[in-house]
Specification:
811 residues, alpha+beta, Beta-galactosidase, Chain A, domain 5, Immunoglobulin-like, eight-stranded antiparallel sheet, 42 strands, globular, 6-hairpin_glycosidase_sf
């Protein structure tokens, strides 16, 4: 924005930090914030979703308050209106340089006013529709009701962050999800968010953390809410910035999931002294006084305790403002993997038109690699042998149905690779190779992209990563057999073409369904480019792919829960249209984490291996901790996803739909076409459904978490030095003495230790064997003390083949 608001509108207000153009009705037409010498334009909606506006939902109807200008100043404008006996005010003004919205509601009637919801449609444009516009569109990354106040932030893929906070509590919030398409009179949820609403009052039930008293206005009662907005330069400045405008404690947590005996460091940003209250899963309660470590900053280290579950934390300042946090204390990773394996039989893979219905096969084969169980392996083999012929031609090695869903083919490639690596059955790898050939021959376009018709599909469930997994499995055979060398070279060349096209596209790509700045489209692009960079023979050759991956990953921060102090949600991506397909629940709601959150985990892990930046590893392991908790830590039950929305009145199919087991089931089943039941969902886990619903539903996609767990954390420990030179660890403990780093492994299945601590000597024990090794750079160390520099690098004699044809990034 080159200048403040243009001079052709009805109402202009502002100061040196912000400038607004308002319609006579009181809604915002344009809003700008000064950033250094530039102006940042915050887009606002027109039409149905314009704002700010008071809205009321009551007796099954929604109404908007008609507002008129009451007063205007240089930096303020006050509007008034009413609906029935409730009078409203809406004022835009400056508060210590911040743009502020103060709104009030007064009940002038003689009866209590108890709406379903009463709130403010913000009108902010969060509708991410097309490239490159979506790079400059805000997404409501985090909205958070605390018991005594409200805060959150919106973020654009280009890095612009708009923080918001209210010193008064908000009852709830809601996102306005769009309609994707119609099936007759029935709506399917879309992939975009129109805007968001701040609910000042809302009927229950609401999550326990939310204020429970904001459901009514008594006769003669008036309530007021004031929300301040501020541009924030960096994500690590969001919490201190909001703490300076809202007199409440803001909790920053480094680790949100702990193993037994581990600890988390809490930083509390508060202008007032604070006290902290903690409830452990075993019932123990503590009160502590966090130590002041600087201006408006307090520190406290929380010990993980001795029982699995959630540590509940409440921090209160002397003004009575209170914030809450949850830290998860987890069992060993192998426990989650074993429970997920058991669940993969209870919620069995089914032959359908969607690979998400048989994703459990990943968990079944990968779990066998870590904990052999002949009986379970036999059942797994029988399951795959039963459903495979229903979906793929056994002779022609191509899909039998919905051939445009090329992700079905690439996913089966990945499963067959795992089958081969688990059983040693070369026939499984031959099938995987043949399916990859079909994918390349049919779906790869001359520009290198994989496509379904004309739609860009390279980043729909990572087909190139699946082929990369195939390449890594093929390489040993390629050294010994000419036929495998030929296959290897074809697949390697194909992947290079696809990755070169992703680099050239620079984010201008498509996705399945409705186009948007889509969570999976961006994370799958980043993860595939990151893995491909790691597979290059030199850092220089990998640099273009690494650079592209990191750029995409940085933009993807806008769709990720990177600040929330909640071990159930940390690192979760903000996805919101899968419940209608996976578990037959409508309307749209956030599924966060959903199975596809793990796509970002691969991306951040590869980013760590590429950059050695411990921030990426911290993000990775926090997100692994959140996603693994789809297995309930108390009962061992597998959930499908977590829903952070505070209040969704939803319906779910309630009558089992039986499948014909001699055929693959196809399509989706709209909830409203079948017997269903209504209930309220709010900040909770959603259960699996495929144990009793046999037709094509896709809740098995939860197993992406356990595929990811197996690759990233199940058998790996990490030792690194942080910015201050101290040792930080995951899946182990470490201390340095006399120039030697001593590592104690704390997980039962560790095969590799990753050292990112400069140069030195390390000593650790694998089972009963002591390993002592010198290291002079970042590396992996095996159980035998062998050094591995690059986990995904192909053997030297295959690099020439892998480099053909030459990269064409600039072409």
């Amino acid at each position: 924005m080159n200048s403040p608001i243009a001079q052709n509108s009805s109402i202009h207000i502002g100061d040196s930090h912000w400038s607004a153009e308002l319609e006579p009705s009181g809604v915002i037409k344009r809003l700008g914030f000064r950033s250094d010498e530039d102006w940042i334009d915050i887009r606002y909606r027109k039409g149905e979703y314009t704002g700010f506006r008071w809205y009321l939902e009551m007796n099954g109807q929604k109404q908007m308050a008609e507002m008129v200008l009451e007063h205007q100043g240089v930096d303020s404008a006050l509007f008034k209106g009413s609906i029935g006996a409730v009078n409203f005010k809406l004022q835009y003004h400056s508060s210590e340089g911040d743009f502020s919205v103060t709104a009030s509601a007064a009940n002038t009637g003689r009866l209590p006013f108890q709406p379903q919801a009463l709130g403010l449609i913000t009108g902010m444009d969060t509708y991410m529709e097309r490239f490159p516009d979506w790079n400059h569109t805000l997404f409501p990354t985090l909205l958070r009701c605390e018991p005594t106040h409200f805060w959150g932030y919106c973020m654009r893929p280009d890095g612009v962050i708009l923080g918001l906070a209210s010193s008064q509590p908000m009852a709830s919030w809601q996102l306005q999800y769009n309609v994707g398409y119609m099936e007759g009179d029935l709506a399917w949820g879309g992939h975009r968010v129109e805007t968001f609403i701040l609910d000042c009052l809302h009927a229950g039930p609401l999550p326990e953390r939310h204020p429970q008293h904001l459901f009514q206005l008594l006769p003669g009662e008036e309530k007021q809410w004031s929300i301040r907005f501020r541009l924030v330069e960096q994500m690590d400045e969001v919490l201190p910035a909001l703490a300076s405008v809202c007199p409440a404690p803001f909790i920053e947590v480094d680790r949100t999931t702990l193993a037994l005996g581990e600890s988390a460091r809490l930083i509390i940003h508060s202008g007032e002294p604070v006290s902290a209250f903690i409830w452990y899963p075993d019932g123990q309660r503590l009160t502590v006084q966090p130590e002041a470590i600087g201006k408006n900053k307090y520190e406290w280290v929380v010990q993980g305790g001795a029982e699995y579950g959630h540590i509940q934390i409440s921090v209160e300042n002397r003004l009575g403002k209170r914030s809450e946090a949850i830290i998860s204390v987890r069992p060993p990773w192998s426990w989650f993997m074993n429970k997920a394996r058991e669940a993969a039989f209870h919620f069995p893979p089914r032959a359908t038109s969607h690979c998400e219905s048989w994703y459990g096969l990943y968990t079944l084969y990968l779990a066998e690699q870590f904990e052999p169980n002949p009986e379970m392996l036999s059942r797994t083999e029988q399951c795959l042998d039963a459903i495979y012929p229903l979906m793929f031609d056994m002779e022609r090695n191509e899909p039998l149905l919905v051939k445009h869903r090329i992700q079905n083919v690439s996913t089966m490639v990945g499963i067959l690779v795992d089958r081969y690596e688990t059983t040693g059955n070369e026939a499984a790898l031959e099938k995987a190779s043949a399916l990859a050939d079909w994918l390349i021959d049919v779906a790869q376009h001359p520009d290198g992209s994989f496509r379904a018709g004309n739609t860009h599909y390279t980043s729909v469930i990572y087909p190139a990563k699946s082929i990369m997994e195939l390449i890594l499995a093929e390489q040993s055979l390629a050294k010994r057999h000419a036929i495998w060398k030929t296959r290897f070279e074809k697949h390697a060349a194909s992947v290079r073409l696809a990755m070169d096209e992703l680099v050239r596209a620079d984010g201008d790509i498509d996705t399945e369904g409705e186009l948007t700045y889509e969570d999976g489209m961006i994370s799958c692009s980043a993860l595939q480019l990151g893995l491909f960079a790691l597979m290059q023979p030199t850092e220089e050759q990998g640099e273009p792919y690494a650079k592209a991956a990191l750029k995409l990953l940085t933009g993807h921060n806008s769709l990720t829960n990177l600040l929330i102090a909640d071990g159930r949600q940390r690192g979760a991506t903000r996805r919101f249209w899968e419940s209608q397909y996976d578990v037959a629940i409508q309307p749209n709601m956030l599924n966060s984490p959903h199975g596809w959150t793990s796509w970002r985990i691969y991306a951040t892990w590869y980013a760590y291996l590429l950059t050695e930046d411990v921030t990426y590893l911290l993000q990775t392991m926090n997100a692994v901790g959140s996603t693994a908790q789809m297995v309930d830590m108390q009962s061992g039950q597998l959930h499908w996803a977590f829903v952070p929305d505070p209040y969704i009145r939803a319906r779910q199919i309630s009558k089992p739909m039986q499948a014909v087991h001699e055929a693959a089931q196809q399509g989706h089943h709209h909830t409203m076409k079948h017997p269903s039941q209504e209930f309220v969902i709010g900040e909770q886990y959603i259960d699996m459904i495929s144990d009793w619903h046999e037709k094509s539903l896709q809740d098995n996609d939860v197993h992406e978490h356990f595929k990811c767990l197996a690759e990233v954390a199940l058998d790996k420990a990490y030792v690194a030095k942080d910015g201050s030179g101290g040792l930080v660890t995951w899946n182990c403990t470490a201390h340095e003495r006399d120039g030697i780093i001593y590592v104690q492994l704390t997980e039962p299945r560790i095969r590799l230790v990753h050292m990112n601590a400069g140069a030195g000597e390390v000593c650790f024990r694998f089972d009963d064997q002591t390993v002592q090794s010198q290291f002079d750079d970042t590396c992996w160390i095996t159980q035998e003390g062998r050094i591995i520099r690059h986990l995904y690098a192909l053997s030297d004699d295959l690099n020439v083949a892998y480099g053909f044809p030459e990269s064409n990034i600039q072409g």
